[in-house]
Every structure is written in C-alpha cells, then in structure tokens.
Amino acid sequence: MSAAAYGAHAAEPSHARTGVLLFIVSEVTLFGAFFASYFVLRGASAAWPPTPDLHRPDLPLVALNTLVLLSSSVTMQRAVAAVARGDRASSSRLLGATLGLGLTFLLVQAFEFSRNGFGIGDGVFGSTFYTLTGFHGAHVSAGLLAIGALLRRANLGLLGAANAGAAEAVSYYWHFVDVVWLVLFTTVYVL
Amino acid sequence: MPDGDGPITRDTSARRHALIVGLVWAALSAALVALALNVPFQLTAASREARVIDNAFLTLLVVSIPVFVLVEVVVVYSALRFRATADEDGPPIAGRPAISVAWVATTTAMVLGLAAFGWAGMNEVLHAQHPPDLVVRVVSKQFGWTFEYPSLGVSSATLRVPKDRLVRFEMTSSDVLHSFWIPEFRVKQDVVPGRTIAVTATATQVGSYGVVCAELCGLGHTFMRAPVEVMDQVAFDAWATAVKAESR
Amino acid sequence: MSAVPLSRPSRAGLVREGGLVRGAIAGLGGYALGALLASALGSAKGVEDPTPHAVALGYALGVVGWIWGLGGLDGWLAWALGRERSEAPAAEGWRRYLAFTTDHKVIGVQYLVTSLALFVVAGLAGLVIRVHLAVPSSKILGVGDFNTAMGLHGTIMIGVALIAVVGGLGNYLVPLMIGARDMAFPRLNALSYWILLPAGLAIVASPLAGGFDTGWTAYPPLSVRGPLGQELYILTLVTVGASSILGAVNFLTTVMRLRAPGMTLWRLPIFVWAMTATAIIVVIATSALAAALTMLLFDRLLGTAFFDPRRGGDPLLYLHVFWFYSHPAVYVMAMPAFGVVLDVLPVHARKPLFAYRLAAISFLAIVVLSLIVWGHHLYVAGMDPRLHGPFMVLTELISVPTGVVFLAALGTIWLGRIRLTTPMLFALGWLSNFVIGGITGIFLADVPTDIQLTDSYFVVAHFHYTIVGGMIFGLFTGLYHWFPKITGRMYDERLGRLHFALFFASFNLTFLPLFWAGIHGMRRRVADYPPELAGVNLFVTVAAFAMAIATAVFLWNAVRSWARGPRAAADPWRAHTLEWRTSSPPPSVNFPTPPAVGAPYGYGARPPAGEAAGK
User: Fold this and answer.
1) Peptide bond into C227 cis (omega under 30)
2) Residue C352 with chain B: CB contacts under 8 Å
3) What is the pTM of this model?
C-alpha cells in the first residue's frame, strides 16, 4: 500500500472483498466434502434411490425454483452496479428484488420438501438429500440477512459509491451460493 | 537463487570444522548402524510377512541413522564450537546455491529410493503369492473374536493355523470398527462393519502368540484378545479332526 | 484509539454494557432458549430423549448469546441496522484482556494465556493417564474414565497445538512484522478468540456428561453410539474449526493488503511466510472437519445414515473426510513453529537466515503436498489398496521441503556466533527433536512398516516428537524470544535454562522409550498392557512427572518476570525485524507513521580480513 493510504487503515473495500473470497474457498471445501460423500454413498448403492418407495422430487418445480435463484443473482449484480454509481432508488429496488426472490426460493423449497414423502432419516438417500439442500438453504438464509442489512442501509441513504465494497463482497457470496445450487441441482436432482 | 553471499574465499578453519564434523558423523553413524544391524530389537518374527516388514524397518533405520546423526552432530558441534566469545556477528552468509541444490537433490533421491523399496515390500506383503491354502473367517464384535473354518466345518475361540501355509483371513464386524493384529506375524487389518475385508499371512514358526484388537472399539478394547496357535500341518489336521468328532 | 479512563462499572453497568458478566448471562440465556426449543421440537417429533438435541442447539444459541453479551456483535449490528455506533469507552489496563478488545496485541496475549492454561489442563489429563499406566493391571481408573481422560488429553492438546502459536504469537507478531497497525478485521479477530471459551468449557465439561470413549478421532460407528460427552466433543471442535478459519481469512487478508510501503514479499520475516502458508492450509482444509463432524452429529441426532452400513452408509467415509483435514492440520501445528525457530536462530547466532527464499518456497510446497497425503492414515483401514502406493510416495516426498527447513536452520547456526540464550536453546532442542519426529514419520509413511507400527505406541511417540518436540519447543522458543517485547520485562535467564534442561531431558526420556514399546506390540489407547512392558511404562510415568515440574518452572518464571522482572529495552536482542522497532511493549498504535523497511536478516558485520566466508 502507498504511504498515503497507510494511515487510513480501517475497512478498505478491498479487505472485505478479499475476506469474502477467502471465506468462499473454505465453503467450497465444505460443500465439496458433502458432495464427495454423496457420490461415494451413491456409488456404493446398487440403485438410486436405493429403494422403490423413495423418489426424487419433481423436476419442473425445482427447475422453476432454480430460475428464481438465478434471477436473484442477476438482480444482485445490477444492485451492485447501482450502488457503485450512487443510484439510491435503484439500489433499494434491486436489493429488495433480490431479497424477495431469495425468500421465494426458500418458500418454494419448503413447499417441495413437504411433498417429498421422505425424511432425513430415510437411509443415505434422505441423509444426503436433506444435508446438502439444508446446508445450501442455511447459506441462502445467511445471505438474505446480509442482503437485508444492505437494503436497510440503502433505504437510509447509507449505501453509496464510497462504501460499495460491502455490497460487492455480499454479491460474491450470493453468486457463490447460486453456483452451489447449480451443482446441487445437477447432481442431486438431475443426474 | 539471489541469496546474498560474501566473498567466496575458502578459509582453512571453515574446512577444518567441516572435516571434524564429517569424521564424527561418519564414525557415529557407522557405530549406530552396526548396533542396529547386530542388536536384536524386534519381536519374534513368526511369519513370512514379518521377515519382509522387519527387513523394511531395518532398511529405513539404517538410512535414517546418518540423517539423524548429521543433524545432532551439527547442532552439538555448533553449540560448542561456534559460541560467541565477544559481541560480534557471524559471517554474512545468506546461502550457498550449490549446497541447497545438493541438499534438495540428495533428499529427493533418498526419498524416492525409499518409496520404491517400500512399494516393492508392500506388494510382497499385501499381494498373496498364490491362492490360499486355508480360509479362516474372523468374526469380531465388542469385545471378542471367533474364528470359523468353513472348509473344515469348525469354529474356535483360539486361532489355530498350520505352519507354512498361506492363510486368508476373511473378516467381518457385527458392530463397530475393530482391527486384527498379530504382532509376531506383523499382520494388521482393520475390520469395518458392513463389508468383508481379507488379509493373508503365512506363519513360519510354531508357537503361541496372540491376536489383539488395534482399533479403539469401546470400553472393552483393552481386553479384546484371542490366543493364536501355530501348529505343524499334521498337528493341525489332528486338531481339526478331533474338534469335528467332538461336535457330532 | 483514545480511551476515556474507565471508572469501575456500576452493577447495572455490568449488565447493560458489553462485558464478561453480560456475556455469561446472555450465554446462559441463549443456552436455555436453545435447549427449550430443541426439547420442544424433539418431543413434538417423537424423539425419545431430546437431551443431546437440547445440548447442541443450546450450545449454538449460547455461543451467540455469549458473543452478543460481550459486545462483540455491536459493530456489525450497528452496521446492519444503519445505526450510528456510539463508541463505548475502551477498557484500560488489565481490563482490556477481559473484554472484547480488538487490538491484535491484546488478542495475542489472550490466546497465549488461554493456550497455556489449556495446556496445563490437558497435561494433567496426560498425567492421569500415565499414573494409571504406571503399572500393569492398574485399578486406578475405570475403563470409561481412562478412555475419557485419554480423549480429553488428545482433544484439548490438539486444540492447543492449533491455536497457541497461530493465535498467540501469530496474532501478536504478524501485524508488527509487516509494519501494519492491526489485522485486516480486528473485530473478527476478537470474535475468533472469544468463541473459544465456550468451546473450552464444553470439552472440559464433557466428563460430567459421560465423557466420550473414542479418542480425539471419534471414528463411527462407535462415536455414533457414545454418551453425551461425544456431542460436547463435536461442538468443541466445530467451534475451534470456525475460529481457525476466521483467523486464517484474517491473516491472509492482512498479509496481502496491509504490508507497510516497501515491505516486499522477500523482506517478510520467515515467520510471516510460515503463518501465510499455515493460513492457506486452514482456509482450504478445515471445512472438511466441519463436514465430517456435522455428518457424525446428524447420525447421532437426526437419524441420518452416513456412517451406518446397515442403511447404506460407510464408516470409511468418515475416515477419509476427517483425515482430509486432520493430516494438513498437523502442518498447521508444525509450520508456525518452523517459522519461529527460523526467525529466532539468525538473531541469536547473529548470522543471516540460510536459504531464506528456498525455505519460504518450501512452506508453499508443504501446503500443496499436505493436502494430498491423508490416505497414509488409512493404509490398514480398508481403503482401496491401489491408493496405498501413491499416498506413500507423496507422503515421503514431504520430507524434501521439510528437509529444507533443516538446511536453513543448520546453515544458519553453522559458523555463526551463537549465544546460548533460552530461545536459542529451545530452538536447538527443536532441531534435535523434530529430526526424530520427522524420521519416524517415514516409518509410518512406508506401507510395510506402517502395517506393524500403526495403532501402536510408535505412532504415539512419533506425534509427540513432532507436536511436543516440534510445536511446543517452537512455542517456548518464541515465548522466550518475544517475552521482552510482549511484556516489557525480561525473563530470568537462569530459570529459563533450567526449564530447558529439565524439559528437554524429561521430554526425551518420556517419549523415546515409547518407540520401543510400540515396536514390542503395545497398542495405543489401551488401559493395560502385557507385564513385560511394565518397566518401560513405569519409567515413562516418572519422566512425565519431570515434564510437569519443568513446565511449572516455566510458569513460575513467566508470571514472576511479567510482574517484577527487569524492564526490557525496545530491542534487547538487537534484531532487525520490525516488531523490534517499537517500544517494549509496543504502544497501542503500533506505528504512528509507516516504518522504514529493510532486510530482515542483515546480520553479519563485514568480516575482518581473512574471516571464513564459506561453509
């Protein structure tokens, strides 16, 4: 860093971004370990689902939900751009949209779970399904809390070009959660 | 490597230090290697696998000794001979690329050599040379072993095996992880519930030994043992016949 | 930061303001809330005994309450709610150490003191084990108590090994060494420390909950069935892991973004390189432990089947995921000690660090290799045998970069001008011990020999040589070397040397015989052994007590010197790294202006004519 920047230690935008990216690395391992477990256990199972009474959720609803989550990444990215150019109205609108889409995703998923017909205790099928989707859902929820905080700050006029770093950092996390969902959707629901 | 370096003038005292250390290192290493090769320190080796494994151990030991001695001699020598006698600095030597290269090359070569040797030993121990002469089913549970001989229709609480025969142990657990270890055979294999795991061994010495559980399996782990008897084929056959007769 | 002098808080203030009292109350409140919620949910779902569920959810909410009560969430909450944060007056003096202080120097000391306290607790557990094992057929402990004592000793010591140098010396020194004023995320730093206390409480309380009989590795299926103490074990390790990850993110961001102007990578002290490499491992690998323990917890609480072979699960899955983290973890324990030793040797031998850049690069090589060798813990576990050979080769290859650490150390002391100060003695002790630890590792990396040696006392001796002989000796090296900087006072040199002599001798006498015991068939984690091993075990027990006495000497020296030792100069060792450019102890603002950065190991006055300049 330059000598001029030395004194201004606290909360540089680049710190938050770097921190979140590093944290995402540890999250990759977390989900990676769960996915690896899924593949190992599925590979060792003669059939998948292992018993005929279990069946995977219907694809159309989940595919729709996937679009919902993907859209939220789009709105999040546009929100970051709005924050960077100091557009308070758009920032609020887009952050609100992201929040709404994220909540919708969770609600639809809860609805889907209620119709699943199997629980987390139903052998390795239920164990892997709910652990993976559950951890993903928990990460979505945490992300929504952060987005909610950004929304509140935007509404209060506290989010602007000067502190866009926080919004960017949150967006990295949000996109990561989205990517995890794409992998999850493909492996657990499709393949 | 751009490590800074002082003028490369060779001085006799530096050479002398190296020479002394070299001599002490060689003498001490030779003495310890001689000890390692001549003082018996291993448990009885009662199987073919034991010989291979003990050989591997001795090889590693003989290779390790000079490495260990080098470090200790340099540490002790430096502590004694390079003491500061006044408030002075040492020479500004930040590195000698030739030495670094030699060091990395030598350690890499040693390690790869040891790995190759280990790979060969591994194959000798873990790959059965021919189909087994006898199959024993080992049933493990908290906290004991049962040995079944399917070909003989016999079951036993003592593991009896004939000498010089390749025995295949097919092992199951009905509860938690256990591990089948006969120290004198140098045979060890964890037993995992939900699958049958096999390990082979050829006993080469008649005698009484023991199999112990080597994976913490609960409160009775310490006491999870069974006797092992290695017998001549004739004695073994006699035992099998007697047990079968008894069970009728 | 300017601090308003704090008068003793009123009783109402103790509850209204963030602090230990409010933290404890909120922690208990959170626990009660979580326990109630889980019990209610559990009963609603027909769970027979919702106690473990209550403990788990109670612990989670308890930790949140604890941190909130300490005032640790105030900053983030204010940000999230868009409120102006009213700066509460910062604590002063010794009170800073009992508060949610964000100064990395305070946090470093908090970590060090906590680590030493836990070291003593775990050491006592170790002594209990040794007392029981002093004679065969011992009736001193019941088997359950023995297993718990052994599990406690291992688990707490692993925790200490992970946080003592990294959290203690790392936190204190890294910002100073790179010329920064603090870590990149000071509040996160404090959070990383304070969540460790509930974790420590949980593990220390586990004997009261029935203990756990699986050792620190907690292999299923045994660990799925164990008593409530197993839950506490899981919760402790998950917390320590989270603290680790947050700390590592902090370290990496700090080293990447907060180096002073002129602090190029090749001017970083080797300790910073070691901390960076360590942090990379932590960020990459630690979550695997979280995953393994989560699946274990779910098998226990939610009826999942991850490790239940009767329902499609596989116990070996746990071993793979667990060791994917736990092997690199040993380098998290060992590398910071490498960094300490390599940073101390040049100062006390007054000679540049030999092969500095090669050593730094070796740390990165260790990072890469450490992540792909975990299978050597599974040679006899039933792993696919085709994997044995590759894991063996890769594991043995780690000796090469580790060997470079020895090249650097030996090359530094060779032809130096050595002062046999206590830090130097411990550094030399590290050299002597770690070569044994490293070499015996090869015996375990080699498949044929590992077959016989794994799960025996040979392994126990090996890892005590690397962790105690390596990490603990490195810790003491650093504690003595930086004692004057951290405390502003000098330790007693004679007591330091006495500590070294006693500890080095007793450590070697305790653990060297255990190699022999392993070769002679003594299994690990057993409460009894054959009579022919009685002599060895008795000898080892006596030697272990000598280790305890040595440690007591250190503690006495540390406490007394901190309280009443002679005031230390800013730079008593005349060292060149930046932490010595501040007062002893440093002011609360490390560097008011950016410090002048030079080479870290510029020792070696121009030699008089004819002086040796070659090896």
Assistant:
1) no
2) 4, 92-94
3) 0.95
